[in-house]
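[job 0412] stage=fold_complex status=start
inputs:
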Amino acid sequence: MVRMPTATSVVTPARYEQGLTYADFLAQTVVNRDKFEQNYQNAPLSEDDLAYFRKAAARPGGPAKILAIAEAWCGDVYRELPTVARIAEATGMDLRVFPRDLNPDIMDQFLSNEGKSRAIPVFVFYTKDMRYLTHFTERSALAHAELAAVAEQVKSKLNLPQTATFANLPEADRQVFLRELIAGILPRSEAWRKEAIREMRELL
Amino acid sequence: MSVPVIYTIRGCDACVKLLSKWEAEGRVWEERRVELSQATLDEARRYGDMVPIVVWPDGRVEQGFEGSLGCFL
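[job 0412] stage=fold_complex status=done
writing structure:
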């Protein structure tokens, strides 16, 4: 999650209108349609969540448009984008999806990890007249923290030195570390979805 | 399978780094791009959850590339 003013010069109203609707994005997607559909159907949005987002959207100068940077192959995208589609539908916000690799200029304005990462999804919230409000990137702060915590647990389990990182491990250890790390974080997916909603509520 | 198979996504930085390194080293491999077909994506998931995935002729499987975590599938 990033909370900071961001230049959005390339996202003019005309450019925004060129984005895909969620339905069009799904229609041109060749992978993971089942996961998008499943996560749309079971989006962990409570009535309280929906009421909160509706209230935010109704505020003068509140969020009215959402720009999503996404790619269908990305696990973080099919985990979070369907939820945002449900929020848009429930609140009347307009959602436009921009495939990351076809829109590098937009992606470049929302880089993470100190400008080094093209992490997705990115959800950028604008007012009706396209004033930037805020944006959410990739996964929640809790998810990032849990990822780091699981990495530490795996190090302990495998008796790896505390200085061990994915980058400095011998290849054999690195593969075991990665398998254990993935096994440790996959069960957290549902909690991360709920936490993303909580963070977007905070942002808005 | 006589050459390594690499499951990739062209938008994945770790995949691009791996391919660039192997190309510079003159290696031979078969690339299978998972973003282009659900069947290839499902095939890749049999080996791992994160591209790049290298499946060696002897059956060994490696995910990620050197210091770079890849992209979750």
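[job 0412] summary: The first helix of chain B runs from residue 13 to 24.
[job 0412] exit 0
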